Amino acid sequence: MQKEIEITIAPEDAGSEEEIIKQLSIALKIVLSQIRGYKILKRSIDARSRRVIFRMQVNVFIDEPQVADVFTLNYQNVADKKRVIIVGAGPAGLFAALQCIENGMKPIVLERGKDVKQRRRDLALINKEGIVNTESNYCYGEGGAGTYSDGKLYTRSNKRGDINKVLQIFVQHGATDDILVDARPHIGTNKLPHIITAIRETILNAGGEVHFGQKVTDFLIESGKIKGVVVNDEEKLDAEAVILATGHSARDIYTLLNKKGILVEAKPFALGVRIEHPQEIIDAAQYHCAVRSEFLPPAYYSLVEQVGSRGVFSFCMCPGGIIAPCATYENEIVVNGWSPSKRNNPFANSGTVVQVTLEDVPGDDPLRMMNFQSEIEKTAFALGGGNLVAPGQRMVDFVEGRVSADLPRNSYLPGTRSVMLKETLPDFIASSLKSALPVFGKKMKGYYTNEAILVGVESRSSSPVRIPRDRETFQHPEVAGLYPCAEGAGYAGGIVSAAIDGVNCANAVLKFN
Ligand SMILES: Cc1cc2nc3c(=O)[nH]c(=O)nc-3n(C[C@H](O)[C@H](O)[C@H](O)COP(=O)(O)OP(=O)(O)OC[C@H]3O[C@@H](n4cnc5c(N)ncnc54)[C@H](O)[C@@H]3O)c2cc1C
């Protein structure tokens, strides 16, 4: 017999099989020897009361042997099958490619950036010298913005597709199977590059193609149908289906589509700052303790507050993380965050952003939200004084309107400069943040403190442009065979939801092309 049951267990016992089996036998009122095996289905930390516990949903094998689950996808060879061009090798592009193979189609992935290994050198240049390679950076290159990201795999997109399959594919390519059970699964920046490389190898072994340094610079369209793409302004590639998975930073793609008269629309997004605290402040607040137990991971938080008609919220929270310089153009500052798999840096950061509505940026230019975003990033660069030095301010100083005499030690490697952040943030954003931060402090003890730094600007939260598509066929309403995909098209946010959208686009190609 098999039985599903929830148990709670102390953090220090959560890694002990013996203790788990003991708790299962107590909960099921059976003797230890009857438990022939168990499988943890979900694991979460419950820190609501003073005694922090782990909750585990477990499938128990009682008086019958445990059967191991096996998940392996065997990819068929598609070398001589129908070609599908996929623009962008981010999570969406790579999962679209894998799904094309499953569907018996040959994916040809075109990526403007470099492979993960070579990309690492450009990231070192960004961090050490403040120099941005506009084709190879934290957003561009193999694996897209997902490779040197935090690798948090939590998503609410469960209605859009099979989250478990995406996670299983990550495991098949080298992620630990903890991600299948943890309530907040996380891979870590140090592990992602190997996983992305393994996914590329699967695509190549199945007869697909992945090309780097291949920037799509034009679309070939005849009588409202896609016929192919132009690469690097010279080479033409024919195809009857093009999945456009270029991410939300590819302003040249939005500009190109708009210039060609292909419908794109302004889209609301969110903008603000990255906030960093010493991790011990967050641990103390969330785990109700002076010092975090060695059996608990660095603590996480999620905060939201409505200020008038506007939402202010934290997102992409990175316990034990680093603030990353994520600009894609010269002379702009964009920040984001990542953490290694062990989350063992002394700081906790999160994007803390304010909703920006279409009414905030009046006009009818479909690119106006994008231009608004770009202007703020340029102002932040100027305010930092160059070389990717980011403008910063202590939290209470920002709210009370004074320049910080100095800035706390922080994780942003190119350096921070003390400024009045309201000089780079539009009034409605600065004032919403000023209202929300003390309220966050009431929700989470210790949060509202001058030991925290605000670093500007967190501007690439989601796409400021939508590339529309038909609900059923996923094709652009004006260009048959063009499949706007994932975050760049405004249909996903985050690694897993982008991957799911890639899968959905590949399925739409199979069905409708
Ligand atoms: C530092 C950082 C940390 C993050 N942490 C997390 C996290 O923990 N969890 C999470 O869920 N999300 C995180 N994100 C967000 C996540 O990475 C994105 O949501 C996700 O990568 C979007 O996937 P995508 O495939 O739609 O686009 P992208 O990942 O942006 O990929 C698009 C790809 O298209 C390529 N491209 C663009 N234009 C062209 C062109 N003209 N021709 C050819 N190629 C082109 C780009 O080079 C890029 O590789 C993070 C992002 C960053 C930057």
From TrEMBL:
<dbReference type="InterPro" id="IPR049516">
    <property type="entry name" value="FAD-depend_C"/>
</dbReference>
<protein>
    <recommendedName>
        <fullName>FAD/NAD(P)-binding domain-containing protein</fullName>
    </recommendedName>
</protein>
<dbReference type="InterPro" id="IPR036188">
    <property type="entry name" value="FAD/NAD-bd_sf"/>
</dbReference>
<dbReference type="Pfam" id="PF21688">
    <property type="entry name" value="FAD-depend_C"/>
</dbReference>
<dbReference type="GO" id="GO:0016491">
    <property type="term" value="F:oxidoreductase activity"/>
</dbReference>
<keyword id="KW-0285">Flavoprotein</keyword>
<keyword id="KW-0560">Oxidoreductase</keyword>
<dbReference type="Pfam" id="PF00890">
    <property type="entry name" value="FAD_binding_2"/>
</dbReference>
<dbReference type="InterPro" id="IPR003953">
    <property type="entry name" value="FAD-dep_OxRdtase_2_FAD-bd"/>
</dbReference>
<feature type="domain" description="FAD-dependent protein C-terminal">
    <location>
        <begin position="268"/>
        <end position="461"/>
    </location>
</feature>
<feature type="domain" description="FAD-dependent oxidoreductase 2 FAD-binding">
    <location>
        <begin position="84"/>
        <end position="115"/>
    </location>
</feature>
<dbReference type="InterPro" id="IPR028348">
    <property type="entry name" value="FAD-binding_protein"/>
</dbReference>
